[in-house]
Design goal:
The chain starts with a helix and ends with a helix. It is an alpha+beta fold. A 5-stranded parallel sheet has the order 10-2-1-14-20, covered by helices on one side. Strands 16-17-18-15-19 form a 5-stranded antiparallel sheet. The N terminus and C terminus are likely disordered. It is globular and about 70 Å long. It has 16 helices and 20 strands.
Amino acid sequence: MNAAAQAPFPPRVAVIGGGWAGLSAAVELSRSGCPVVIFESARQLGGRARRLDINGRWLDNGQHIMIGAYRETLRLLRLLGVIPERYLLRLPLRFFSPSHDSFDLSLPRLPAPLHLLFGLFGARGLSLPEKTAVTRFMLWMRAWNYRLPHDCSVAALLHRHGQSEKVIRALWKPLCLSALNTPLAEASAQVFLNVLRDVIGGTRADSDLLLPRTDLGSLFAEPAAAFVRACGGTIHLSARVDPEMLQRIDRPEQGWRIGTEYFDHVILAIAPQHLASFLIERPGYEELLGAIAGYAYEPIATVWFGYPPQVRLPVPMLAFPGGAGSHGQWVFDRGAIADNGSPGLLGCVLSTRGPWQELDNDTLAVELHLELLSLLTPLLGASIGPFPPPLWHRVIREQRATFACTPGLKRPGYLLPEPGLWLAGDYTYADFPATLEGAVRSGIRAARGILEGAQTPNGQGFGDNIRLKQSITQRY
């Protein structure tokens, strides 16, 4: 039995922010009997992973990819009654980029690590020495338990281990950009190794790709909200909490007030760039705010195309070949992935900063269409006739989609100096880059910190209980 269940009155918790971190914290607290109130400034839940009405369809602001190693996300989905096998398309990890030097690597459904060995040596587009160099690199990672004595850039690590430019372009660069959304020359090698540990260092199923068959609102945000409400919680939308509304109450139980409502704990599940407004006037946060102020951010754009229904991909997701003048990274066939997907609906993803940022939306769409024309015409051939122009397009730009995951980046934890005040968000889960799983785990960790600490009398031990911090970290 957890501490909250043992207490005569479970703590009342406010969650500021209704993204995946805040919702995960709210669900974990609600299932333990804690009254939760969510304050979300937007008109909908989901944060940076939300759905939009695009040309009469519910689509996401971006195409998000999950992997089989997202254990906490999958656990929460099952708790919410969302069956992953029904709502997520599970595919073996595959890098397929048709071009003049076509690259195709697919991991077969064999036990680990045989799936890696057979997949690598069966890959098309790499020479035997290149495959051998990748194998040596993977063996080195395993031997060192995916840990570096000193962090460096991903580019430096790959060159140190003899990875050819072709291997980097075809394999490591797409994987790094997808996971860290940071250029190789600037991306943290240690966090990249953490990703590889989860993708290729575990079971075969851990490396599978999980593509949502429905929009992210239906997948997680709406079921999470329904769960919280069913447990007696409250959700306020379009409810911006101004910093001056957050007041600590000087009383024995160390409570908090937001407006006219009183809480035992408050979780700040907000983006790092918004954190300073809540903490700048409070003593004891100088080091934290100094670190956050040094963060850089990377953009992501998603361009949705509505083509005639005969346009389709040979696989659900396809890598652009890259190279000079190329903007796209991945293209997804939503008509093939989604349950109610429209044939001909393609989504192109552009990761991290680049020349595409200087283009207006219409010009960017035109240039991506030309890239698709070059990519798909040889694959589809005469089956569709002349490659048709799109019937419509929509460009969605997230200028601060993720923090730049650079070497040695200082990441805050979930504990704050003031009792009863907690942090959640992907940037607080230092083992991961800015991913949905990192956000989910950060929310769960903050919630469990409250549940473990709730048994301490008079609110003592919330902010500086090192044993509490260690016990929760060990469980993760």
